[in-house]
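User: Fold this; tokens only.

Assistant: Input:
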Amino acid sequence: MPNPVSSTVPPSSAAAAPAAHTASAAADSTPHNAKRWWLLAIVALAQLTVVLDGTIVNIALPQAQIALGMSDGDRTWVVTLYSLVFGALLLLGGRIADFWGRKRSFIVGMAGFAIASALGGAAQSTWELIAARGLQGLFAALLAPASLALLTVNFPGGKDRIKAFAVYGAIAGGGAAVGLILGGVLTEYASWRWCLYVNVPIAIVAIAGAIPIIKESKAHGNTKYDVPGAILVALGLGSLVFGFAQAENGWGTWPVLVFLPLGLVLLGLFVFVESRSNHPLLPLRIMADRVRGSAFLTALLSGAALLGALLFLTLYFQIVLQYTPIQSGLASLPMTVTIIIGAGVLSKFLARIGVRIPMTVGPIVGAAGLLWLTGITVEGNYLVEVLPGLILLGAGLSMIFVPLQNVALSGIADHDAGAASAAVTAMQQIGGSIGTALFTALYTAAVSSYLVGTAPTQAAELGALVSGYHSTFLWAAILIFAAGPLAFFMVRGHKDLLS
């Protein structure tokens, strides 16, 4: 094969070209490259917006329901439509970012998300709020994979990559709890509308920083869109998210029995189409690697456990312990603080110890924290029954999320950065939908079982609720624990994933 350097560079400079290239690459990877760290700050801001939006709106929903006269079914759609559109369009959004340009996709996604948030905040009717939430999901599906792809291509390896993904992982793990606090403050002291308006100033700052700092990057060569694959995966993921969301009304209801199998069939057809496509939406090589596959499964399991556990812990604080929204958010804060501290500490040692140890130990520690929470009581001694569990859970999540992105995106060519980033986010999104539906069903069954043959007193009702929370925390512990053996047996000695 002819040497491309010798064909374009004079002989006297050809030998120097590789050395110059190496020196340039080394310069690019130094921690003094200030622009990359500003890029990280901008991407982190965008990721925080997407992550906290799920919980911040949940805090605002009771007031929004009263203000707009929503039914309980309409209230559910405010949450469901966002996750439905977001989950269904993620892979397409990742490919658009690859082909159209990651910077351009980031800016358009951020601007669109802000406009949708403003429309939701100004909503005067139920359908306006629901439509705005769907629009938020659409632009989030473009913004989220573009953000992670920008990190992937701008931090290609080494200690800087570890630090960048540590920040990203800390936000992924702690952003939901931040949403609870911020939502509580805004709802109590301003209005439920500000839980949506708050995204506008954040977006303005992020876009203003992105325009001069972020350089455009995009895939080259084969950039033809896989239309059949896009349709199949959007319908498949959408069916799964919708089916799981409807499971709170019972696993035997017709939407669950129709849409869950339909989603699996459509995703099976998607895999079949991708295996034969010359320009696949999601190249199967991304998912087929054993080590990377374990990271995707870990994202699914940890996403299910985290979102499911946080939902029912918030219910325990507000319904049983009678905390205000602000108090509830502050009560969850130790988990977030532990994640942030843990991510910072682990990022310093990850290059030395590799990813296998934290990805094996993290799920065990996180499961221990969730098991501790099965000891909560109606009386509720926060310092004894809750705080140790939150600290353990935060420590475990930091050990999962810091190496997770490194493993999931290791060895991904720039051409596929958006597609791979979208796949990681899709697994977490589907995991959250599965966790919420599964734990809601388990919670309902446990509450009903507790009340059988019991006199309908207030004490009995509170006891039934706590019994339901015990069940959800136990199953969340089982789910997150399962990620430990996956890492132990599938991620063997992969320090090279960090280089």
